[in-house]
């Protein structure tokens, strides 16, 4: 089910998230129609894509309250426990405005403000993802965002799963709208009667959602373009094959395009994990999905030492990286690119998906080279402060004029000259 | 030259940075060809768009050294002075990795690492922008980026202006390549023989450059999509009409699509600025450009009080905002959206363009609602750390399993169960 391959074959397993001209054209059409027709287009697309005719896209307060009652207490407890830990971790990410003062009285600084309104996309249809709600909404709330608008596609009966709505309540969502797909992204970007225009759109989705986010980038801000889930496990001979197999399967079950890779220094472990994966997969409800994913994008490779393992992992820049080795902290220094690093045998990736506290929205498809986990700073924006006094003007003005003149921007130089002349006149 | 208009007319002056299907198709073709043909495509497009046939796109060490000699000492001094102030401001933006430890030994944290290689786009052709080089490169160098690749279109004679190359040397660029336009962005995103693939692309450019950056976003990271320059001046009766007019003109001269707006509580100031703009514009080398910009996107509006002025400015979310009022710090609290705020009569915007220290790469076209000035954090990426101990697993494992089961992800639950079972077995 999961092959043992060489380094080259393993690197070929990498996917790219490219879109065809057809996909681009399709999504641009959807966006244009939502811009022009607003809610009418949303209702039409929801009928077309979700197979349900909605009179109102808005989720009422009553529906939210009912959901909290409908969800079993055990799940509500877990949601609140997770929300509390996620909040505590993200509060550590808050940054403050600052200023620097210079001897001549010049003040320079950086203001930090929360975004005013953000949109959170939550996948739906038959799936239910309360954890996605917590992970995308809580950082925005911690940042101080005034209004969080959640969009999620309705189920065939037109409802939203109770667990999703309960999570929205726990996380602090201000408004829930029953709409999904590229049309939901377009609505958040441009605004309709039911969906207010937002400053930023976050949250995972299918290819069309990801492409729509990319196409509205600039009109609004977006988080990184999310791809299929991935895990790389680096393990030595001390690792437990039962744990390693279980963790590979936990990512593989996400979807048939998920990727799960083991890089190990132990040929015995490689063989044992291979066997364990087959044995454990049989017992899984989503075993067939996991099997397909492992056959397509799964792999085990045996390397000479842990340094080689780290280098190979850096080339993959995985979303999730587990270090199941005797000395994980000793290996950490060699890891340059990974969305989240899980150290040691107890730090199984699903703990990070739900309750550990760090965000589970992580860069995929090698983008951990340059993207970061979703965090509070994604919901903050900065602006610069400049307050010059006369002395500083006299010091820096001529330097700025020299640069302005080199760039052929005479009016830039003039704006400084009129002030220097005014001071010179006063001086006389 | 610059109209006095009402609030509504002023808001209609806002531009949007939308691209046509034709523009998208054109730029996608350029990107595809660069991906397929590499340098060959770059040479061909450079001949087509820049009108120069280049044998080598690479700028040699010797050319860089010559440039430093060729530039007049006064300009070199200004470049070094500016670079030093820009470096000092941006060093304040550096952030450190951190961890939080819990009572049971759990360690959670956030690592902060510089990007490894970035590309900086510097506009060229006939224009010369050494300040763009400093402002885009220095934050990357301060962040610790190992390799900064600068791309800029060659002049008709195939050379790059000495001032641009001198600035590259002062700022710490590692490699300069003679290529511009969408093809340069494509080369940085996918890599060619002359242009190494980068992790992030920053720097301003024309519509095609901006669109290309948007289209490669995801393959690499990009800074915000830059539009034409803008300034809003909020002034009361204490403001000097000569200063206000000079500052409006300094932005208007950037290009015919630049925007310069005065919001004032004083009808007298409005009239005096109108007159001053005409008087000063006559003396400007780029007066005709400034005139066209002011006629198309310039405006003066008189409001009832400063609170109204601030609200109107917040709706515009300008790139640059000057507060030329008796108490600028008293007004600051009402300003929610602006790329950079300049306080008081001496803080003319061109000081910020060149020497003040804060970055002059700022969000345009209303994107100050959600984008930030270019800064060190644009060249840093984060990743999460999770290290669970046995106690923490026993505490959080069941909660995570409850959420996994609610999401129908049995393998996620199983990855935790195998560990709880192993501990249970040990317990017996």
From TrEMBL, chains A, B:
It comes from the Bacteria. Zn(2+) binds at residues 251, 254, 353, 412. Its cofactor is Zn(2+). Binds 1 zinc ion per subunit. Substrate binds at residues 229, 251, 254, 320, 353, 407, 412. Pfam families: Histidinol_dh. Belongs to the histidinol dehydrogenase family. Catalyzes the sequential NAD-dependent oxidations of L-histidinol to L-histidinaldehyde and then to L-histidine. PANTHER family: HISTIDINE BIOSYNTHESIS TRIFUNCTIONAL PROTEIN, HISTIDINOL DEHYDROGENASE HDH. This is Histidinol dehydrogenase. The lineage of its organism: Bacteria, Bacillati, Bacillota, Bacilli, Bacillales.
